[in-house]
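New to this. Help decode both lines:
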Amino acid sequence: MSAYLVGHITVKDDQLWQEYVAGVQESLAHFESKIIFRGQLAAVLTGKHGHDLLVVIDFPDQTTLNAWYQSEKYQALIPLRDEAADVVITSYEVYGN
C-alpha cells in the first residue's frame, strides 16, 4: 500500500534550502520513491495555513518511508533542514480508490 510524505515548508535561507533539497534527492535514491510534485501555495481557500511551499513524495509503503526518514543520510540532513526552513512533515497511507 503506497505511503506519501507531505512536507509543508517556509524557507528561511534559500541557499541552505537548496543544499538540503539536493541532499534529500540523494538520500531518496535507494528507497523506490518518487517526488510527485513540489509547489508554491497559490491561495488558502478555507481555514489557516502557515507555509508557502509543499512537497509530496510517494513511497511503496509506510515501512519504506520510515526507513528513509530514519536513514543515516536523511538524519544527517535534519540540522541543515532546521536551519534552512520551518518544516512540518507528515505521512499518509493510501486506502480505497
About this structure: The radius of gyration is 14 Å. The chain has a mean pLDDT of 96. The beta strands are 3-11, 34-40, 53-59, 85-93.
